[in-house]
Amino acid sequence: MKVQLLQVTPNSIEFIGKCAAICYDSSTEPEACVKRASACRDKGHLATLRFAHATFHVSGISRICSHQFVRSKHLDFLQRSQRYCKEEEAEFVYPKSKVGHIYEEAYTTSLNLYKELLEVGVKKEDARFVLPEATTTELVVTGNFQAWLDFIRLRADTHAQWEIRNVAKEINNLLAKETNNNIFEWMP
Ligand SMILES: Cc1cc2nc3c(=O)[nH]c(=O)nc-3n(C[C@H](O)[C@H](O)[C@H](O)COP(=O)(O)OP(=O)(O)OC[C@H]3O[C@@H](n4cnc5c(N)ncnc54)[C@H](O)[C@@H]3O)c2cc1C
Question: Which of 148, 150, 158 best tests ligand 1's pocket when mutated (most atoms within 8 Å of CB)?
Answer without folding.
Answer: 150
